[in-house]
Design brief:
heterodimer; A: alpha+beta; Rossmann fold; OB fold (Dihydrolipoamide Acetyltransferase, E2P); 2 domains; 6-stranded mixed β-sheet; 5-stranded antiparallel β-sheet; 8 helices; elongated; B: mainly alpha; MetI-like fold; two-stranded antiparallel ribbon; 13 helices; about 70% helix; flat
Chain lengths: ~350, ~300
């Protein structure tokens, strides 16, 4: 059963339309990540689901129930905020208990529920502390705990990891994923970090300027990006974009290289050729572009090389032990199956 | 010589150079007169003649002066009614004004205006409001509705509240501004989280807003307490002709000090009262800070 359905959601702030008819269906127990650059409407979408903002038009259904006109508390959701929104003057116990304030459970049941959540999150011994005595990761867990005690149909996370340092973020990422596997509730998670999206999501929703660009599993959006935006947003460093032209069953790139393709396209049509840096390497037989190495970025197992070509600068991956020197001429190759084609004008993928 | 100092020492030299002016100011304009007042409180002096040592005489006189105890009580009535009333009223105004968008700036200005007005001018306008018919605004209103006249400033029971009201009103604007700044500093997500948890507005007010405003409340309580303990200009200007009201019913400590010093020219006695006022202010402020600090 779909636990969350968005149907043609439009949101306007005064006269500015920020969401232009969003539709999406989320299955029960699914972990869906909304990702996109700032201002793409991902947080607004989350706030609409939570009921903190009202939709201009369109319908939101949670567990088969239309919730457009319901108060946040009646929507059977819980939310974890970017700044955690845990109250500094209350102990951890009171903070988590706040989520149960309006619940109809008996006092003993509430206490049992609270202890159960604390145990799940491994913070039973922290219950008596104030937030100021907790580390960033612990505060994060309190915020999650407050959401968990409500046992909602849908968990909403609004960039919850962006206030943590890099190491803790990686750790919390894993913890949230494990938690999801254990608890199994539906999660909607908003982030601007494509690594978070890739690592955690069952499905990723990539947004830009109030439109959904692509919805798919991490593998789908990585290997079959729907357009140039998705192709360049997912994966770091970004996909290289080169321009070419269709010429009888092949795509001609620059003056000398050609790529075999089974795309049925008319001759002379300009196309964009996308190659991920990790698919582009010096040497090899399927030579695509060539030029002089301008910068090297050693990463240990591999070295990124920036190569100035007649198509502009491209990034390629070289061996970590014996990378080419700066100033050296290199020829870069890519396997034909790792090459993506996009329409020059619309940016849509050509398949 | 300056060149040979380390960076840290140079910073210290500069810090003291800038601090020198306020230090001199405080020493000459604040601390010297303060200590001098303490010395004078043990002397007899009429401002022109010689100072003569009097030991504890002034304090002894004060202890046995029924007027002092009346004044002492008045001062605390100003404090104990004025501070809570102004705190609650200014919070209520700030709380609702904060939610209002329509004419927000204009209303805020209206509340702040009395704070900028001269206390003397304000006191005289209010004094005029309190006059009997046909001059006084309030008594005209009472007459129109058929309620008997109230001798606001000539009554031993109404005079003090009648003076306290404009004093509270005058300080309101400032407190409203401070409260609004405090309210604005509370992150919106706290309220949004509470909305999702579905707690009542009442719970939000008493368990989130007010506890988080505690530093603001401490500041306003201390600040307004000091103000009410030192109340003078409203009382003086609203009861000229009979300073201190009928049977000293409105007289605060500062007015008694003023009269001892500049009507009776009994500087020693005035200084002794000043020392007592200083001690009261000190104790009240310390107690408040102690109680309202984070436990």
């Amino acid at each position: 059963m779909a636990s969350l359905v968005l149907r043609d959601i439009v949101k306007k702030f005064d006269n500015t339309e920020v969401l232009h008819g969003l539709s999406l269906s989320v299955e029960d127990g699914e972990f869906v990540v909304f990702v996109g650059p700032s201002g793409c409407g991902k947080s607004t979408t989350l706030r609409l689901i939570a009921g903190l903002e009202e939709t201009t038009s369109g319908e939101i259904e949670i567990e088969g129930r239309l919730v457009n006109h319901l108060e946040p508390k009646d929507r059977n959701i819980a939310m974890v905020f970017q700044n955690y929104a845990i109250y500094p003057h209350m102990t951890v116990r009171k903070n988590i208990g706040f989520g149960l304030r309006t619940s109809k459970l008996s006092k003993a049941d509430k206490k049992a529920r609270l202890e159960e959540v604390a145990a799940t999150l491994d913070m039973t011994e922290l219950l008596g502390r104030k937030p100021s005595q907790l580390s960033g990761g612990q505060r994060q867990r309190v915020a999650i705990g407050r959401a968990m005690v409500r046992d909602p149909a849908v968990f909403l996370f609004d960039e919850p990891l962006s206030n943590l340092d890099a190491q803790l973020r990686t750790q919390m990422r894993l913890e949230i994923k494990k938690l999801h596997q254990r608890v199994g509730n539906t999660i909607i998670f908003v982030t601007h970090d494509q690594v978070e999206a890739m690592t955690m999501a069952d499905r990723i929703v990539i947004m830009k300027d109030g439109y959904i660009q692509q919805v798919g599993t991490p593998a789908e959006v990585y290997h079959k990006p729907a357009n140039t935006f998705v192709a360049q947003f997912i994966g770091a460093p970004s996909m290289n974009m080169l321009s070419g032209e269709v010429a009888g069953g092949t795509v001609r790139l620059g003056s000398e290289s050609e790529i075999e393709t089974d795309l049925a396209l008319e001759d002379g049509r300009p196309v964009l050729i996308g190659v991920r840096p990790e698919d582009l390497y010096p040497g090899g037989a399927d030579i695509l572009v060539w030029g002089q190495v301008t910068v090297r970025e050693p990463l240990g197992p591999e070295t990124l090389i920036y190569v100035g070509t007649e198509q502009g600068e491209v990034i390629a991956k070289a061996d970590g032990r014996n990378p080419p020197e700066v100033g050296e001429q290199v020829k870069l190759s890519a396997q034909p199956e790792s090459i993506h084609f996009f329409d020059t004008i619309t940016g849509e993928a050509l398949t | 010589m300056y060149r040979s100092l380390s960076v840290r020492q140079k910073q210290i030299v500069w810090a003291w150079a800038f601090l020198a002016i306020p230090v001199v100011f405080y020493a000459v304009i604040r601390f010297y007169p303060t200590f001098n007042a303490m010395v004078i409180s043990f002397q007899d002096w009429n401002l022109l003649g010689d100072r003569a040592w009097a030991g504890w005489k002034n304090y002894d006189k004060l202890w046995n002066d029924p007027v002092f105890w009346k004044v002492f009580k008045n001062t605390f009535v100003y404090l104990l009614i004025g501070t809570p009333v102004s705190l609650v009223v200014s919070f209520a105004i700030a709380y609702h004004l904060d939610k209002l968008r329509f004419m927000h700036g204009f209303l805020r200005m209206l509340y702040f205006l009395p704070f900028m007005t001269s206390a003397v001018a304000m006191a005289w306008v209010w004094r005029w409001f309190y006059q009997p018919v046909p001059i006084g605004l309030f008594n005209n209103f009472l007459a129109a509705t058929g309620i008997p006249q109230i001798e606001f400033l000539r009554s031993t029971s109404f005079a003090l509240p009648a003076i306290l009201a404009p004093a509270v009103w005058a300080g309101l604007g400032f407190q409203v501004i401070i409260f609004m700044a405090g309210l604005r500093a509370i992150p919106r997500s706290y309220y949004e989280a509470a909305r999702i948890d579905g707690v009542s507005n009442w719970t939000v007010l008493f368990e989130i807003t007010i506890p988080l405003l505690k530093p603001t409340i401490v500041f306003i309580v201390v600040f307004s307490s000091i103000g009410f303990l030192r109340i003078f200009d409203h009382v003086f200007n609203m009861t000229t002709g009979d300073p201190g009201g009928p049977l000293n019913s409105t007289k605060p400590l500062v007015l008694m000090i003023y009269q001892s010093a500049f009507t009776d020219f009994n500087m020693g006695y005035a200084a002794a009262q000043t020392v007592v006022l200083f001690l009261i202010l000190l104790i009240v402020s310390l107690v408040q800070l102690r109680i309202l600090r984070d436990r």
